[in-house]
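Before the break, one more example. Copy the sequence into your notebook; we will annotate it together after we see the structure.
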Amino acid sequence: MNSTMAKGTEAFDKCYSLGYEVNHEDWSPYPRVNKLRQTFLDRPYEIDVQRLRLVTESYKKHEQAPRKLQCAYAFENVLLNCELNIYPDELILGELCAPAKATPIFPEFSVHWIIDEILNFPFEEREFDQFYIRSEEERQEILDLCAYWEGKSVADLINSRLEPEQLKGAQLGEKIFQTNYFHYAGTGHFSVDYAKIMEIGYDGIIANIEAAVAKLDKKDIDYADKRDEFQAMLIMQNAAKQHIARYVPLLLEAADKEVDETRKEELLAMAENCKQIAGGAPKTFWQAMQLFSFTTQLIQVESNGHSISYGRMDQWLLPLYEAEMKAGTLTKEFALELIEVQYVKLNNPVKLKDKSTVIVRNGRCAGGESLTIGGMDAEGNDATNDLTMMFLEASVHTRMMNPWLCVRMHENTPYELKVKTVECIRAGYGHPKIFNDEPAIRALQRKGVPMEEAREYAVVGCVEPSIPGKEYGWHDAAYVNTPKMMEMVINGGRILDGPDKGMQIGPDTGSLETYESFDEVLASVDAQFDYWLDQMCSSLHIIDNAHKVRKPVPFVSAFYDDCLASGQDLVEGGAKYNGIGPQASGIATCGDSLTTIKQLVFDEKRCTGAELLVAVQNNWEGYEKLYALVNSSKVHHYGNDDDYADEWFKFMFECYCKNLRGRTIARGGTFNPGVYTVNANVGMGMNTNASVDGRKKGEPISDNMGPVHTECGSHDICGPTAIANSIAKVDHSLATNGTLLNLKFPQEAVAGMEGRDNLISFIDEYLSKKAMHVQFNVMSSKTLRAAQKNPENYKDMLVRVAGYSAYFVELSKPLQKDLIQRTELHF
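Here is what the structure looks like once it is written out:
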């Protein structure tokens, strides 16, 4: 669309602020939005027992039913019996069948950790990510209900099938790879085809299911499984209709009691909205927003999935928006207010995570709810429109954790969209993140997606390009601690320090004491990667199968045409495109380690391999001169546009991708490598011994695709352009599950028109080099330290942690420290 037609409600070059402002005034022009935002911030995080109670009741009643029908009956019981809430001032309804900002419990996936933490590590006593149980009676009820599920959950099945070699490397062992999310919770990480739902509504979905039922053939050997799938879909879709309809009498009753005429009219309009979308397709923009809200929440109620993402919202909402604007029944101002109300509401869903996960990844939001805007259409034309700009305005007006706003850019992205995007970035709240269409589309084509479909990609979770309504990619399936693999490389497959010190846990592929050439080191890296990825992938096959056996997802599967055509659930391979996407973490740590070995041991012979190994074994203590040398500019480092060092980052990147790519999975499709850590580099570093790049034991490993920064100093010293040039030396499309780069600029670096234009120019240059993804913190270390010292003044200060933003004062101290230590860049 021509950029002159794409206008929000404000000037595209409006400057909102420069970084976080203490004691700021309300950001939104809508008093309702500011009030709802403050209500969210003031509301406590709680654990709600309703879902656990109702699901357990249903499973006990239907113990002999097929598993798909057990899931359906439980979903129905929750939706028809959970308490409903209508909150003051809200225009859009619905929660996770729990009060706002309260987390349900999903016993189908795991309960042992819930029981253990209630008894031994109370959620409310955590250092961070606290959750509160309302009463001692509910605490005991949770324990009693969870007891029923012991031995019956997805995690129980997984644990019964993992072998010692797999456990050695996993989160319960040496944490060489971690599968926490999919091991203990739902997989999620998809986006449904919202455009289709908006076009036909739930009645249309039900009609499609009934048409599929009519085609069933008892000669089909899978007849019974398909019959159960369709029956479960119908039960759940009808339950969703009834759930929405339950709001209508409540709204009418509230309207009857309301004395304020304006609010009375809103309540009556909301009742009409629910009447329409309880079965039919939405007829108005407001109804479309309401249907989106209910559908997304109910998907989460079913699946406990992380990263239930919203697709290309500026595209699938556009037809209703344009129709109403043309008819004169909608104003831009009310459309924007609805978007902002929706944005605030999207922060209400929260998720209970185990104590190990929250150390690796801090934050209580459900997480991963990416909303994608911009980019090109299926024909390759720019798709920017009014809503693209308004979604950015809503983001900067609300400045909240969710949604995770993603702006797609390409060579024909309008200048106005670039400026508005950068003005949001300069406001310093961690949104939006930027994706480059060219390498993202190429990555999807590597997975077998044709060009027209690939151009319609949306971002799922932190990083991952995915096809809405067609892909079940198991993105973010595991974190791979590549520096732990390097520990095996330098020490003969043994652990350097800790309880397992000296134990042979991996193959002996040589050590720094034995290597006679650098080629032997590289061969050892390849062999260790191959071995440990065997352990991880075989573990993920077991986890994948456990979800298939114990927790199908018929409600969301009904939104996938290919599931309807095949009669298969998503967990059975019903989607058109399937995959499993684990990500490599700490690649720069490994790259700089290789560079150090090559330069100091083999090229310059400043030390022997044995001396370097002993220094690392001793955590660099007693080897201060060597430690200082390794961290100095006298040694080549990745991130400085230095071919000597960048070659070995490229080697590590390609080694991981090569050893993972092409491994097949049971659902059809393959493993897809990602190269990012989100914020797991901090938690992983806590469990990682000293490394050859100059890290000391316990320090964070390198951040995503970024250069190394140790407590001794940052390894990148040549500025943002040099970092971009280094990163561009790898083919990002090889990482078919995505890549991520974090950059931090202090406020003064991007101040004024010059600072704004410099940042736009940098983004243009970065994208021209075919890098896939970049995101920014506009926040000085000085500001972050002030927030540490006086957290009460910075309660709503968002920072870009990695693929997501979070409130800085709610993060763990190690994660805060990592954010402070990231390199401050200047143009």
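Residues 616 and 690 are 6 Å apart (CA to CA). The chain has a mean pLDDT of 94. Try to locate both features in your own notes.
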